[in-house]
Input
Amino acid sequence: MTPTAHFLSGWLVANCGGANRRDRAIITVAAVLPDLDGFGYFPEMLTQNRDVPIAWYSNWHHVLFHNGLSGLVCAGLALLLARKHWRTALLALAAFHVHLMMDLAGSKGPDGDHWAIPYLLPFTDAWQWTWSGQWALDSWANRLIGVAMLALTVLLARRRGFSPFEIVSAKADRAFVGLLRRGSSHAPQPEQDTDVKPPMNADTRR
Ligand SMILES: [Zn+2]
Output
């Protein structure tokens, strides 16, 4: 599927337990990382009419980073960088694998080619994920899934008080959430770490 769809899927996984802005960003990025191996798209497109085109996209996309080892590296980086180390690492690993499942479901090429996931590379390509029901990358199903994920993202932002904009700018995030909540009884909330317990009140301290 498209990087935008993967981004939204990562954000939704991050909403399942990403405790703070930083960790949610890490989980979301983990869902997009496999497509870094699509770096050859533009060089290949620009040289397709040459006698010897640069075939980096054909050779490396769905090969370099669409495998289990890359998922483990991704989870390891999340473990190092996150505040809630283990929880974020597990969610990053989940987001990474949601990416693989989405590609498995809806990434059939325009020539009818089924994309396979060579999960055990670089050790062996003997076991590849394939699914005979795989639909086309530009199909209505992918558009429907994209719209559904976007709608859920907006609903969550309105309800929880943070959106994907927080990854790049807290100010833009507040403005977006404020716009969604305009006219509602929700008031914009500052970011809270969901694991931080509220202070005890005077009665419980006694
Ligand atoms: Zn992919």
Observations:
- The radius of gyration is 20 Å.
